[in-house]
From TrEMBL:
<dbReference type="InterPro" id="IPR003593">
    <property type="entry name" value="AAA+_ATPase"/>
</dbReference>
<feature type="domain" description="ABC transporter">
    <location>
        <begin position="5"/>
        <end position="234"/>
    </location>
</feature>
<dbReference type="InterPro" id="IPR050763">
    <property type="entry name" value="ABC_transporter_ATP-binding"/>
</dbReference>
<keyword id="KW-0547">Nucleotide-binding</keyword>
<keyword id="KW-0813">Transport</keyword>
<dbReference type="GO" id="GO:0016887">
    <property type="term" value="F:ATP hydrolysis activity"/>
</dbReference>
<dbReference type="InterPro" id="IPR027417">
    <property type="entry name" value="P-loop_NTPase"/>
</dbReference>
<dbReference type="InterPro" id="IPR017871">
    <property type="entry name" value="ABC_transporter-like_CS"/>
</dbReference>
<dbReference type="GO" id="GO:0005524">
    <property type="term" value="F:ATP binding"/>
</dbReference>
<protein>
    <submittedName>
        <fullName>ABC transporter ATP-binding protein</fullName>
    </submittedName>
</protein>
<dbReference type="Pfam" id="PF00005">
    <property type="entry name" value="ABC_tran"/>
</dbReference>
<dbReference type="InterPro" id="IPR003439">
    <property type="entry name" value="ABC_transporter-like_ATP-bd"/>
</dbReference>
<keyword id="KW-0067">ATP-binding</keyword>
Amino acid sequence: MSAIIEVDHLSKQYANGPRALDDVSLNIDEGEIVALLGPNGAGKTTLISIICGLVVPTGGTVRVGGHDIRTDWRAARKLIGLVPQEITLEPFETVMNTVRFTRGLYGAAPDDAYLEKVLRSLSLWEKRDAQTRELSGGMKRRVLIAKALSHNPKVLFLDEPTAGVDVALRREMWQVVDQLRRDGVTIILTTHYLEEAEEMADRIGVINHGTLLLMKPKAELMGEFGKKHLTIHLYEPLERCPPELTARGLTLSADGLRLGYDYDTRSDRTGIGSLLAELSGLGIRVRDVSTKQSSLEEVFMSLVSDEEKEGAA
C-alpha cells in the first residue's frame, strides 16, 4: 500500500513554551486505522492540528496524498476531514443544513444525494430536519463526523471521538468507524480509551513529551511488549507457597487453590515446562492451567514509564 500521509522530521516549538513535537517521522498507509496514544499534553493534538493545517510547524514537512500542507495546502486540505474533540455546532441549525454548509466551505458542488448517503450511514437521516440543539450528545458527535465527511475526504482524523459518550454509544461509534474503513477511508484517531485502540486500530503509535516512542502493528506491539499471566489451578489448597516456587516469582491466592506466574512472551524459554515438572516433584497436583495476555493499557503504561525513567536519568 502507498502512504497517504508522510510526516518527515516534524517539530513544533511554541514561543516561550514547551517543545510540543520533537523530530516526529511517520507514514500512514491508505485505508488503515492508526491510533495515537499518549498522556495529556503529549503532542497528539498538535500533530493532528499540523497535518490538518491548523497549526504551523517549526520544522519538518508533511504531505497528504503527495501534496505538501504548506506549499500546496488547498489540495492537501481537501483530502482531510477532522472531527474535533469539542462539540461545536450551531444550535438552531438543522442537521442537513449544517452538513450542507460544511461541504460548501470546501468548495464542493451541492450533492444532496451524497449527503443523504452520509447521514444514513451515521443513522442521522431521520434527524435531518432536527435542530442540532435537540440532539443527544452521541448524535451530536455523529453530526461532527457527517460534517467531516461532507466533502468526501480520503483521510479522517478523530480527536477523542467518544469522549463523554456512554458505553453503548461508544460501541456504535466503533461500528461507524469500521464501516468507514471498509469504504476505504484512512482513519487516524486519538483516544484515552485504550480498549478503543485495541478494538479498532491496525497500528498503534505512542507519543510522550512530543516524541513518537513507537509506531507498530497492534499484534506486533502486543507480542513484543505484552506479558502473559499463567494461573495454575490446584486440586488441594496449599497453606503457603513453597520457597522454591516463591524464588521463581510465583504467588499463591488467598484460598490456596491458585498459583500465579507472570512471564515474558519475548523470552525464548518461558520456564513453564520445568515449572510444571517442579510442581509434580513437590507433590502438588495441577487441576488446570489458564493464561491471560496483558492488556494494551498495561503495555502503554510500561512504555510511558520506561520513557519517563530514561528522561530522568
